Amino acid sequence: MPELPEVEVVRRGLERWVAGRTVAAVEVRHPRAVRRHLEGADHFTAALTGRTLTAAYRRGKYLWLPIAEADDTPAGQALVAHLGMSGQLLVEKRSQPDETHLRARFTFTDGGRELRFVDQRTFGGLAVEDADGGSIPARLAHIAIDPLDAGFDADRFSAALRRRRTEVKRALLDQTLIGGVGNIYADEALWRARLHGSRPTERLSRAQVADLLEGVRDVLTESLAQGGTSFDSLYVDVNGQSGYFSRHLAVYGQADRPCPRCGTPIVRESFMNRSSYSCPRCQPRPRARRS
Ligand SMILES: [Zn+2]
Q1: CATH code, 4-140
Q2: Does residue 121 have a known ligand-binding role?
């Protein structure tokens, strides 16, 4: 599943290759791709044709592109995209053969490269939603700003995290508290901060929260730096688990391999129908609470 850095790479690609272009035609090739556009595929197509996509923004794992009329006045709407488990937004030459799982195609009035939405498992989707005055679409507004966003407030995050009475890994995955951190980056950030994911948030010190936030930022930034070049090939592979970052994972998916810090074998534990990976020596489990 694409995590925040991968989606940010896609946003940068859209900003570079799509923003400012006027849609000539939209072809919806699979109705599931626009199922969140409740008025249907024809309405979706009509809402975009002849209009300009003015910029590319991201909130968590959602992308949105504000729409303007032909005379550049804002339409009060935005094209919203979510990549789901396997979605890709590709910018390609028109001569490039269609992908097997091509779900939607956008052509532009400048006759240049197409924008294609490709999604093998069709959990992702596109919709045109209201976004008055170029502001964030209402459906995305509840998602917390993430640490890659310039508006992220570290002090507020620290205070909110310590107020939650939950396990620290659950808090990291809570999109209302911190946006865009998925299972992989949560495990990597916890390892960097030497915290076990089941540590209770209300008992973390300010310094531990600061270490954790630094871990989140570092792991996201490093991943972004590696993924940041992949859009040069006009192709972002978001299939599978964090493709280009996987060579650099310290704990995630590394069960029985030595911890890069202390050499102790990494352990896998089940967590919310998924897995958590940690070093039992660097990240000891919290002791049971005294009653
Ligand atoms: Zn270790």
Answers
A1: 3.20.190.10
A2: yes
